[in-house]
Amino acid sequence: MTAHISAKPGDIAETVLLPGDPLRAKWIAETYLTDPVQYTAVRNMYGYTGTYQGHRLSIQGSGMGQPSASIYAHELLAEFGVKTLVRVGSAGAMSKDLSLRDVVAAIGATTDSAMNRVRFNGLFDYAPVADFGLLRNSVDVATEKGKTVHVGPIFSADTFYSDNAEMEAKLAEYGVLAVEMEAAALYTLAAKFKARALTLVTISDHLITKEVMSSEDRERSFADMAEIALETVIR
C-alpha cells in the first residue's frame, strides 16, 4: 500500500492502462476485463485488475497533468513491480492533417514543464520517447482493425488554457501533432525504472478548426482507442 494506491502486493498486474479520468478507468475495466476487481479508490482514483483474453491486466486512473500522472506512474513502477504502462487519453490536434476521432501514438513528447530540468539539474533537455515495441504493436493492431493511427511527437503541456497561439503554431511547424498533459512524465519515469511505456490519445478537439467532439462521439471513439491499447499490450 502506498500513499495514493491502496493495493496489496500482487493486486496489480505487470501491465497497466492509464486513463486520466477515473470513471474512464471504471468503464474500461467493466467493459473489457473479465472478473474485474477494484483494488483502490483512494481520492476516488479507481484501479482495477482483471483479465483480457486470458492476460492479466490492470486499469488505473492517473488524474490530469504531469504531477498527478507522475505520482501514479512512480508508485506503480517503484512499489508494485509494473513493467508496462500505456496511457489512453484525449488530446487537442495541433496539425491540420488530424481530424476529430483520430488516434495518435506518441513517439516522443516535447514539454514546457520544468520537471525534467529539475530532475537533471538543468544540465540538458531530456528527450522522453515511447517504447518501440509497443509503438509498433499499436500500429499493427490498428491496421488489422482497419483503423488509422498517426505516429509522431506530441506536446505535454503544463497549462490547459493557453494564450500562446504563437507557440502552438511553432510546435506544429516542427511536426508536433497534438497537445495533452502527461506523456513526457510517463516516458521519463518508464526510462528510469527500465519499463515500457506508450501514449495513445484520441483527438477530442482541434486547436486550428476549433471543432469539439460531442460526448457521444467521445464514448465511441475512446472505445476504439481502448481496444487498440488492449490488443497492443497482450502481443
Keywords:
7 helices; Nucleoside_phosphorylase_d; Rossmann fold; globular; five-stranded mixed barrel; alpha/beta; Nucleoside_phosphorylase_CS
Describe the fold and architecture.
It catalyses: uridine + phosphate = alpha-D-ribose 1-phosphate + uracil. Belongs to the PNP/UDP phosphorylase family. One of its GO terms (biological process) is purine nucleoside catabolic process. This is Uridine phosphorylase. Residues 16-233 form the Nucleoside phosphorylase domain. The protein is of the alpha/beta class and 235 residues long. The chain has one domain (15-234): Rossmann fold. The protein is built from seven helices and nine strands; from the N terminus they run βαβββαββααβαβαβα. The protein has helices at residues 22-32, 66-79, 115-119, 132-144, 165-173, 183-192, 215-233; strands at 15-18, 34-40, 47-52, 55-60, 84-93, 103-111, 149-156, 178-180, 196-206. Strands 5-8-7-6-9 form a five-stranded mixed β-barrel. β2 (34-40) and β3 form a beta hairpin. The longest helix has 19 residues, at 215-233.
